[in-house]
Amino acid sequence: MVKVMKKRVNNVDINYITIGNDKGPDIVLLHGWGQNIKMMEPVGNQFQRDFRITIIDLPGHGGSSEPLYPWFVSDFADAIKELLTSLKIDNPIIIGHSFGGKVGLYYASKYKVKKLILLASPFKKSIDEPSLKVKILKALKKIPGINKLEGFAKKHIGSDDYRNASEVMRQVLVNTVNLDITEDVKKITCPTILIWGTNDEAVPIEDAYELESLISDAAVIVYEGCTHYAYLERLSQTIQIINSFIRE
Fold first, then answer.
1. Contact, 173 vs 165, CB < 8 A?
2. Cα distance between residue 32 and residue 236, in whole Å
């Protein structure tokens, strides 16, 4: 059963869902910029038999309210920590895509994380997120079994992009895009995998290899010919890889 919940954290109402086995280990999923819970459900849904799955609408996205002032990545990580603590979630497995992956990286550099799975996650000033909407929609049209999300994507992906965002969220985006967390990434000690497409125009594959070199226990898994949405373009492969990794 899906439980849709909301908690007040740092003056923000954070919307989230929980599914799966309440007695199982915890997996927390964090979506990309301008998205929401729906874009991480295809992954989270696959593990609900044995794991407790929590998928979060990051503040300013989906059903979560906007921050009262322009947050930095550290603010998002701290808010997630407070939320997870209130839910009695400690040492989770974190899966993050794009912006959610950057938040996950910072979180793992500061708080206890069992394992980290990054899906095309930026970590330095090398991404132009405001231009992603068209690329994302084109990519979704090519994804077998996921193209049914195209209608949803047109309505929700990029709905909070730079041009349409509030002044606060605009500045949040600028803060995020301009932030280099290289030194923070070096502090990560948990086992980490990085799933990346060779045709990612938002976060190039070269960044994946650099990120791999910065984390003490990390490995890159390359999807030839895939885009910024490689994890959805080869969903079954992604599920198999994650399943093997989290059960080791």
1. yes
2. 20
Segment 3-56, tens digit of pLDDT? 789 999 999 999 999 999 999 999 999 999 989 999 999 999 999 999 999 999
Nearest Cα residue to 247 out of 191, 208, 187: 191
Whether 89 maps to a domain, the answer reads: yes
Task: Kindly state whether residue 248 falls inside one of the protein's structural domains.
Answer: no
Residue 247: inside a domain: no
Tens digits of per-residue pLDDT, 60-90?
999 999 999 999 999 999 999 999 999 999 9
Residue 33 belongs to domain with CATH number: 3.40.50.1820
Query: Does residue 177 fall inside a structural domain?
Result: yes
Q: Contacts by 153-160 with C-beta closer than 8 Å and gap 24+? A: 156/34, 156/35, 156/36, 156/38, 156/62, 157/34, 157/35, 157/39, 157/133, 158/34, 158/132, 158/133, 159/34, 160/33, 160/34, 160/60, 160/61
How many domains, in total, are found in the chain? 1
Q: What is the rounded CA–CA span in Å between residue 181 and residue 73?
A: 9
In which domain, by residue range, is 108 found? 3-240
**Which one, of 144, 105, 172, lies nearest residue 229 by Cα?**
144
* Integer Cα distance of 185 and 221 in angstroms: 18
